[in-house]
Specification:
41% helix; single chain; Nucleotidyltransferase, domain 5; 147 residues; disordered C terminus; alpha/beta; globular
Length: 147
């Protein structure tokens, strides 16, 4: 199964990819000028990577409630469902972009926000959280010598 992680933004949509290996990687963000072009980018990614499941970050408030940003994401999810007809799971995305920015600061890297790199790195955190829940608890690693 192949997964597409999504960090929705009004102008930039961060994307990440993961599969049954359980590792999420950031990929090129959808940063096109129009919503239609961003959806076309997502559709092309779904087709190229044979994605069968979407994982979308849900921006809950710090107290766990839903605010206006969560409502925007819910509307985005409705469009995703009607356009791509794939199963969609939401994952709490609180502070993922902040976490990425802190990591980049620690690495002393400057990133142009418009590139979508921060958004795609946030999408990979969102997807990794989901993959850890799905695959992480059932992994059994063989001891040295066992196969």
């Amino acid at each position: 199964m192949n997964y597409l992680g999504i960090d929705y933004g009004e102008k930039r949509i961060g994307l990440s990819f993961g599969d049954s290996l359980g590792l999420a990687i950031p990929i090129e963000a959808a940063v096109e000028a129009t919503e239609e072009a961003r959806f076309a980018h997502i559709g092309q990614t779904i087709n190229q990577r044979k994605v069968s499941h979407l994982v979308v970050g849900m921006p809950y408030n710090m107290n766990g409630s839903t605010g206006f940003k969560a409502k925007e994401v819910e509307e985005f999810i409705v469009k995703l469902k009607s356009r791509f007809s794939l199963p969609i799971t939401t994952v709490d995305e609180r502070l993922t972009s902040h976490q990425v920015e802190q990591q980049l600061k620690f690495q002393k890297r400057k990133v142009d926000r418009k590139s979508g790199e921060i958004d795609s790195r946030a999408a990979s955190l969102i997807l990794q959280d989901y993959l850890d829940q799905v695959f992480g608890q059932n992994l059994e690693y063989p001891l040295e010598g066992d196969v």
